[in-house]
Design goal:
The complex is a heterotrimer of chains A (about 425), B (about 250) and C (about 180). Chain A is mostly helical. Chain A folds into two domains: about 270 residues, Cytochrome Bc1 Complex, Chain C (Up-down Bundle); about 110 residues, no CATH class. Chain A is built from 16 helices and four strands. A two-stranded antiparallel sheet of chain A has the order 1-2. In chain A, strand 3 and strand 4 form a beta hairpin. Chain B is mainly α. Chain C starts with a helix and ends with a strand. The longest helix of chain C is centred in the first third of the chain and has 31 residues. Chain C has a three-stranded antiparallel sheet with strand order 1-9-8, with no helix packed on it. Chain C has a three-stranded antiparallel sheet with strand order 2-3-4, with no helix packed on it. In chain C, about 20% of the residues are buried. In chain C, strand 8 and strand 9 form a beta hairpin. Chain C has about 180 residues and is α+β, with helices and mostly antiparallel strands. The chains are: A mainly alpha (about 425), B mainly alpha (about 250), C alpha+beta (about 180). Chains in contact: A-B, A-C, B-C. At the A-B interface, helix 4, helix 5, helix 10, helix 13 and helix 15 of A face helix 1 and helix 7 of B.
Amino acid sequence: MGSGERKPFENPAIEWVDSRLPIFTLINKEYGVFPTPKNFNYFWNFGAIATVMLVLMILTGITLAMHYTPHADYAFESVERIMRDVNFGWLIRYMHANGASFFFIAVYIHIFRGLYYGSYKQPRELLWILGVVILLLMMATAFMGYVLPWGQMSFWGATVITNLFSAIPLVGDDIVTLLWGGFSVDNPTLNRFFALHYLLPFVLVGVVGLHVWALHVTGSNNPLGIDTKGPQDTLPFHPYYTMKDTFGILVFLIIYVAFTFFMPNSLGHPDNYIPADPLVTPAHIVPEWYFLPFYAILRAITFDVGIPFTDIVFVEAKLGGVLAMFGAIALLVALPFLDKHPARSARFRPWFKIAVLVLVLDFFILMVCGGKPAEGLWVPLAQVATLYYYAFFLVLIPLFNKFEPRLDLPPSIHEAVLSCCSKKKQCCSHPTEAA
Amino acid sequence: MKYFLLLLSVFVITHGAPALAAGDAEPPPEMHWSFSGPFGTYDRAALQRGFQVYKQVCAACHSMDLKSYRNLAALGYNEDEIKAIAAEYTVEDGPNDEGEMFERPARPSDRFKNPYPNDAAAKYANNGAMPPDLSLITKARHNGANYVHGILTGYEEAPADTELMSGQYYNRYMAGHVIAMAPPLSDGVVGYEDGTDGTVEQYAKDVTQFLVWAAEPEMEERKRTGIKVILFLLVFTGIMYAVKRKIWADAH
Amino acid sequence: MSDTTQQDNPHGEEGSRRDFLYLTAAAFGAVGAGSVAWPLIHQMNPAADTLALSTTEVDLTPIEKGQAITVMWRGKPVFIRHRTEAEIEAARNTDLADLRDKQTDEDRVQKAEWLVMVGICTHLGCVPLGQKPSDIKGEYNGWFCPCHGSHYDESGRIRKGPAPTNLAVPDYTFLTDTTIRIG
């Protein structure tokens, strides 16, 4: 960013600012001429889509906070006042509530993209880890946001999730009391959750900034997973990807808007329209859908871990569940260091490709299990699915490192695009347009 | 893209699933409601009749704390009619300059009068089972409108093997089939001013529609706005697709 | 977007069709952004329940001649003064030429003995003194705003100081001889 390399702008106002603070030079460098692989498919839209959802969540969130009262006696009613009396309050709240779901949809697809095409591999390990940090922050933020309307699901969800920490040996109960600021989930809990729910999105923005910074140091991965070798492999970010991203964002927004306006409560739970009652637990406590896979892993550990045929227990079921759940995310952090296979993209990894698609299916199975009562066949099914999740990272990936063949990589992105297009119909740079 | 569609469809399939596990109640019959679907609207006449049923029957035990008399404007009442409806109720106000609470006729800005002074009184008067507030009842139950309609029309003689205690009634669509609310409706309990037949079925349909409105007063505006927004986005998306193709035409 | 339109193929039908497409896209973007912005701004305007709660009833019986009370209306203080004959006389006999905001006393009251007005200085929104007998009433025997020294007379009209207009008179009606409803 040395001022010596700066190219002057023609517009005098822009030049005046830029010569003092080269912000336009920065924007042009990172989003204007930034060399971007030319063979992205539509999966590469989801980073931009997630960014749009984050901005939308912050804007709607700030405006909701102008009307919301973080007090156990008034929270539920203040939310209903937003829905009934505040100008466009219903719109803003439904945008926020459904926006959370669609933010997660975008981010889960974004993560899947990274997984499938090996975007977590050298040299993008830190970029990937920052992404996992973003996911964790999102989960914390979404969880606390769901508590704010102070309905039955808010209250009991908060109770169950905060109680997870009581599984920690020795200090668990003290930590839970600290989290609650009392002896149960109550007004102090609601107040601090509101404070943190307001704060964390801005932390999230900061980490997203680091994530993008790291991305722009290494450059983007691409569907072939091979490095760019020169200008013939890339296009300037603007207008090629600004316009393609805008198109993708709009398609995504149509689905989001359809939910927001026509089935705004379909992703929520009816019990959350009943005011919180500390004396009555709803028949089924289910977290929001985006937590269900992890909730299923939590509940899958129904057994103590110890030495068989003795009374020696190392890890009780309760702690085991909590460890398994957090472990599922820790494995994502470890993934770049577990996977040593020379090819990035699943396109050139026949075994990994199947394993990762099964992992996606597994994730959905866990999601279904998490929404079902923990009884009958759902328990063993969740256990098998949890087992596969762990096995993918700890057994399959190490095996693939040793034994999985690598298909022939094309010499460069440019040549791959050309040869694909000459074969027609099988165009790898635009699979959707061919479809 | 085909993966994306695959993901999406799996997501849609899996998502519907959790709701099914809602206990052992028989699912209520699916009714045709004027407010269903993306173009659905409320039937003003039905809303007014439903309000009459609520006022004369439900309001004896059920509060609607989130509604104000002024909200009745959405049912088609004019300002004077709303003032007259509000004035039928007395509410406690104060303290006045002498520090005393006093009673006065309700105004349009007041909330619907709660039949009980507090929750404990509501519980005590109903054998310990508090009648739920009805402001959000159709949103607070799965398949809310059909559920409320089902409960109101689902009273039956208990089968021989079901033992009911006093103050309990048998209802097909209630979870566990046992409900603490006595059958609230019977033919002719409410005299409709517009000459509509006073049957239990009619009352149930009207009051259900009223309760859906109470829970989602914004619904008509929401759907109207939604259609405009979707149309706008569809056109915009089409334009952006054309722009994107133009720009990408020379990319290879 | 403009710098892309300058490149290649600037001439002919193709170029102008493309420009039209880009302009339409930009226009849709602008309309879309505006449509999102409006609800986010309009939510700050008074909500339906706030607008509905905009009347206050006041019983005037306890106010003796020469006394004043302050009541809350829409979150603002309303001054209600039971004026003496002398005050009414003085207010009526004021020469309009001496006034910055020319208004007769008759225009500002419904019944001469009751002066009802919003107790907020029209300068920068402070509450003037003059309601309590011990208060400074200013040079014109009415109200005096301590913030920047505006003087109001017996009819609440601005006489001296920075305030531009008289103290505002709210909408009110006499429900009976001794009760009024403000708003």
